[in-house]
Design brief:
Layout: H1 3-32, E1 37-50, E2 58-64, E3 72-80, E4 85-89, E5 92-96, E6 106-118, H2 144-154, H3 160-174, E7 176-177, H4 189-195, E8 197-198, H5 200-213, E9 218-225, E10 232-234, E11 238-247, E12 251-255, H6 263-270, E13 271-272, E14 278-282, H7 289-296, E15 299-304, E16 311-315, E17 323-325, E18 331-336
Parallel strand pairs: 7-8
Antiparallel strand pairs: 1-6, 1-17, 1-18, 2-5, 2-16, 3-6, 4-5, 9-11, 9-14, 10-18, 11-12, 12-13, 15-16
Helix pairs in contact: 2-5, 3-5, 4-5
Length: 339
């Protein structure tokens, strides 16, 4: 090979290296960079359909919108059609005044709100609650299998933070994502451990249960994810579940065992500082609107916990499941707005 060919080859290799470095730097910057403040206008639409052969009268509709706390502020804007009566209790919208639906007739509801997000270094000043360390429904931290797994994973590890990271890496790396585990209402940590799989709610509850079994305060959180850096988008909001884990001396740490990646690679996205593109709807393991349905003492018509909204509709009729959510027509429109 003559000298000119060698020079050209070296130049080509240098160009490839430079472009590879630029590409890698850009990708890492997108994944690691977190803005300090974000604001979104969100319109979420849910469509119900009367699938029965008889008329059905919706009784009451419950909608959970994101909570307002030290990290985020939510402002309810409107609900359409405007003819319905809306009563607000905290972050829960209670809607009345429905007409009877004939067979195959649809009911479309759109609720709009604005959410403002602020960056927090850690979830510092959230107080510990007794429930953060105790077993509860779907978080079976006192179960022997879960206790044994927690001991196995945290063996010979001294600090709580290192134990929590080990538990997180196990759930993130060893528990597969599987939609066939359980049903839409149950997110059992024990079922997830036995099946070695589950959806985000299963994985979040399993991580919470393992942490509590290891003596580390933890909680599961229900919320929505927003598109990274997107100014607007349709069908861009999805319900999700993740964790908050308390580390002594550091406060509450964010953890997402479903979207988790190895700590050494991109752990900042899913462990430690709170992801700015997360919005908390329910700061506990599961939605509690089934309690409201029980108070109504009417049939449960439809509930959605896995799509882009948190809604529950009850009916006056005794027949249950007369209405169902028309999943293909559900929509979430997101628009980035000025803070």
């Amino acid at each position: 090979m003559d000298k000119r060919k060698k020079v050209r080859l070296v130049l080509r290799l240098a160009i490839i290296v430079v472009f590879a470095f630029i590409g890698a730097f850009t990708a890492i910057s997108v994944c690691w960079y977190q803005p300090r403040n974000l604001a979104y206008s969100i319109d979420q639409t849910v469509v119900f359909k009367n699938a029965s052969r008889a008329p059905v009268t919706p009784h009451r509709l419950y909608i959970q919108i994101p909570v307002t706390d030290q990290r985020q502020t939510t402002e309810f804007v409107s609900l359409t059609p405007a003819k319905y009566q809306v009563h607000k209790e905290g972050n829960l919208l209670i809607v009345d005044g429905f007409d009877t639906l004939q067979p195959d007739q649809e009911l479309a509801i759109t609720y709009s709100y604005k959410v403002h997000l602020r960056s927090l270094i850690k979830w510092w000043n959230q107080a510990l609650a007794p429930s953060d360390t105790q077993p509860e429904h779907d978080i079976e931290s006192d179960n022997e299998l879960i206790r044994q797994k927690a001991v196995e994973l945290s063996k010979n590890i001294n600090s709580d933070e290192d134990k929590a990271v080990a538990l997180y890496e196990y759930v993130a790396g060893s528990i597969r994502f599987d939609t066939t585990i359980g049903d839409s209402w149950n997110r059992s940590a024990l079922d997830c451990l036995k099946a070695n799989g589950g959806v985000c709610g299963h994985k979040a509850n399993l991580l919470t249960a393992l942490c509590r079994a290891a003596g580390i305060p933890a909680r599961s959180v229900s919320g929505i994810t927003l598109p990274w850096g997107s100014k607007s988008g349709s069908n861009a909001v999805g319900s999700h579940a993740w964790n908050e884990i308390y580390v002594k001396g550091k406060g509450w740490c964010f953890a997402d065992p479903t979207l988790g990646t190895p700590i050494w690679l991109m752990g900042k996205r899913n462990w430690g500082d709170y992801d700015m593109y997360r919005v908390i709807v329910q700061p506990s393991k599961n939605l509690d609107m089934d309690v409201k349905a029980g108070e109504d003492k009417v049939g449960l018509a439809a509930c959605e916990m896995t799509g882009p909204c948190y809604v529950l509709l009850t009916v006056r009729d005794k027949s249950e499941h007369a209405l169902y959510i028309w999943g293909d027509k559900m929509r979430a429109d997101v628009k980035r707005i000025k803070e």
